[in-house]
From TrEMBL:
UniProt GO molecular function: acetate-CoA ligase activity
Enzyme class: ligase
Residue sites binding Mg(2+) per the record: 538, 540, 543
Boundaries of every Acetyl-coenzyme A synthetase N-terminal domain copy: 24-80
Occurrences of domain AMP-binding enzyme C-terminal (ranges): 532-610
Gene this protein is translated from: acs
Keyword Transmembrane helix applies: no
Cross-referenced HAMAP family: Ac_CoA_synth (MF_01123)
Family assignment from sequence similarity: Belongs to the ATP-dependent AMP-binding enzyme family.
The keyword Glycoprotein is assigned to this record: no
Entry-annotated residues carrying N6-acetyllysine: 610
Protein name: Acetyl-coenzyme A synthetase
């Protein structure tokens, strides 16, 4: 392994930092020694209608029960809006930067209050009640944030579905949580191209109806003015509806453990699961991590480039920043439109201080050339962040040297949809940085590495990453399937939360995430279950069997490599390959498009019929010298054919 460079905390990073290294060590020690005391204190960072007297009540054993601040009453939209009005009613809450660089607007906290209250009243008018599930399928426009906050105001549970998902994927999510109210837009706009959100919604509603879930109301935001279908009685224009209701709506008093949102995410097996987060602990954790990880100070302009369709958008565009009274920038577009300078142009235009993005974007922009960065100033930047997948040291150094001009710390933040907020991360004024390492645990987080047999590994080691005790932002269950929650996260290593990630700890106690150890692949920072892509492929009538694995991809981190066995008599053609890619896009969405399809007369299976993915991964990586023992295969000869026809010859 090449020598690791260490970037020490610079004096300027420490100067006004909220947390220095001594404070980190002290707080961390306290947080793991006495979580009740630590979180009892920090839980007060949000406002409670009724203060909690109990702090932590959690168990990773048996039925697994996770409760934080359970007897407290609060409301998320109250904390993200109302409590700021006195001090910062006229401060910008959201800066919206449109797909088109000439399209932007600012929304103050006062305005946010009115938008959210009106929308909450519209939902009430249509009968949406506490505990009801509302599906949000939106572009990156302020109304997406209004919709989230309006749900929390009345105690409805939102389920946001990423706008890039197909009608089938949207339908599956509507059906799973039996959601009868949908908020969408006529069309989305990204990189100058429109996305037919309403048309997709219409199709999804028809599919859901076949599964006996009847969507009763669709609220439609006019974004592009494009032509759309309309079901009178069911469909309502957002702009019409919000006009006719009152601009105030009292926030519902919610129990800390009342559900806040569901977010579907991919796992190793089966359909995406509905990760359920609850109210109090989630908000405490999202706001606290947002403040300390990004060293957020009052008045900072903060920009996270994620989409609200992913957990990063939930915790670090909307809930964390707004709970802290921040100015959060919401970007509708893409990094390379109209040019590869777009991110840095936006940084200069709005004087962004804190910038948080994904390694895949960094790598793509690195490939576009330094001149796109260098012609911009970026003087306002104080903290840079990375999330979603391991960042390779080359991309890290480029981000540091070129984007940050060697003056700005990078926080490489490791976390998951399930964790609600950041778990392993540097703190800008405290942590010496090592490119490629997410460094050290956040307060209250107890990582542990175990081998495949579950033996705990001490000191410098390489293993499977578990977390041994609960933190307030942790998911509480899989919506409607608590048994699946237990099996997925707590059964592999008994009594521990298993993350699904591999990880190395070095001699300094720094953590290096090495990627998923399960059948999940991480494509451009988006999680994709190989099982989902396989079932999409097999649903095509010419396909008899499919196996999907990840392989290293320069920009995406991992690409999707599919082995496909066709029905007998079907010819393997280039056209069929295209047809299969289109089919997967239709079933799931563009993010699941296979990068490579290899037609394979047979797949390597054990005598008991289990597909040996290890072999398929090696062939996809073009590393077939190291196939290992193939003697246990039912038919070792299939491997020769797979190697001969591999699609990734170097
Ligand atoms: C990966 C995104 C390395 C990891 C917030 C995890 C990372 C999965 C990092 C969760 C990071 C996320 N370094 N790997 N800084 N951040 N991952 O649920 O494999 O979309 O398990 O949450 O992304 O993806 P998810």
């Amino acid at each position: 392994m090449s020598e690791v460079r260490v970037h020490r905390v610079q004096p300027a990073w420490k100067k006004n930092a909220l947390i220095d290294n001594d404070t980190y060590l002290r707080w961390y020690g306290e947080s793991v020694k006495n979580p009740d005391k630590f979180w009892g204190k920090h839980g007060k960072r949000i406002d409670w209608f009724k203060p909690y007297t109990k702090v932590k009540n959690t168990s990773f054993e048996g039925k697994v029960s996770i409760k934080w601040f359970e007897d407290g009453l609060t409301n998320v939209s109250y904390n993200c809006i109302d409590r700021h009005l006195k001090k910062r009613g006229n401060q910008t809450a959201i800066i919206w930067e449109g797909d088109n660089p000439y399209d932007d607007k600012k929304i103050t906290y006062n305005e946010l209050y009115e938008h959210v209250c009106r929308l909450a009243n519209v939902m009430k008018k249509h009968g949406v009640k506490k505990g009801d599930r509302v599906t949000i399928y939106m572009p990156m426009i302020p109304e997406a944030a209004y919709a989230m906050l309006a749900c929390t105001r009345i105690g409805a549970i939102h389920s946001i579905v990423f706008g890039g998902f197909s009608p089938d994927a949207l339908a599956g999510r509507i059906v799973d949580c039996e959601s009868t109210f949908v908020i969408t837009a006529d069309e989305g706009l990204r990189g100058g191209k429109s996305i037919p959100l309403k048309e997709n919604t219409d199709k999804a509603i028809d599919i859901a109806a076949k599964h006996h879930v009847m969507v009763k109301d669709v609220l439609v935001v006019r974004r592009t003015g494009g032509k759309i279908g309309w079901a009178p009685g069911r469909d309502h224009w957002y702009h019409d509806e919000v006009r006719s209701v009152k601009p105030e709506c009292k926030p519902e008093k919610m129990k800390a453990e009342d559900p806040l949102f569901i977010l579907y995410t991919s796992g190793s097996t089966g359909k995406p699961k509905g990760v359920l987060h609850t109210t109090g602990g989630y908000l405490v954790y999202a706001s606290m991590t947002h403040q300390y990880v990004f060293d957020y100070h009052d008045g900072d302009i903060y920009w996270c480039t994620a989409d609200v369709g992913w957990v990063t958008g939930h915790s670090y565009i909307v809930y964390g920043p707004l709970a802290n009274g921040a100015t959060t920038l919401m970007f509708e577009g893409v990094p390379n439109y109209p040019s590869a300078s777009r991110f840095w142009d936006v940084v200069d235009k709005h004087k962004v201080n804190i910038f948080y993005t994904a390694p895949t974007a960094i790598r793509a922009l690195m490939g576009a050339g330094d001149e796109h960065v260098k012609k911009t100033s970026r003087k306002s930047l104080r903290v840079l962040g990375s999330v979603g997948e391991p960042i390779n040291p080359e991309a890290w150094e480029w981000y540091y040297n070129v984007v940050g001009d060697k003056k700005v710390p990078i926080v490489d933040t490791w976390w998951q949809t399930e964790t609600g907020g950041i778990l392993i991360t540097p703190l800008p004024g405290a942590t010496d940085l090592k490119p490629g390492s997410a460094t050290r645990p956040f307060f209250g987080v107890k990582p542990e590495l175990v081998d495949n047999e579950g033996n705990v590994l001490d000191g410098a080691a390489d293993g499977n990453l578990c977390i041994t005790d609960s933190w307030p932002g942790q998911m509480r269950t899989v919506y409607g399937d608590h048994e699946r929650f237990i099996q997925t996260y707590f059964a592999t290593y008994k009594g521990k939360y298993f993350t699904g990630d591999g990880c190395r700890r070095d001699a300094d106690g720094y953590y290096w995430i090495t990627g998923r150890v399960d059948d999940v692949i991480n494509v451009s920072g988006h999680r994709m279950g190989t099982a989902e892509v396989e079932s999409a492929l097999v649903s095509h009538d010419k396909v008899s069997e499919a196996a999907v694995v990840g392989y290293p991809h320069d920009i995406k981190g991992q690409g999707i490599y599919s082995y496909v066995t066709l029905m007998s008599g079907i010819e393997a053609t280039e056209d069929l390959r295209k047809e299969l890619v289109a089919h997967v896009r239709k079933e799931i969405g563009a993010i699941a498009s296979p990068d490579k399809i290899q037609f394979a007369p047979g797949l390597p299976k054990t005598r008991s019929g289990k597909i040996m993915r290890r072999i398929l991964r090696k062939i996809a990586e073009d590393d077939f010298g190291a196939l290992g023992d193939t003697s246990t295969l039912a038919d070792p000869a299939v491997v020769d054919d797979l190697v001969a026809n591999r699609q990734n010859k170097r």
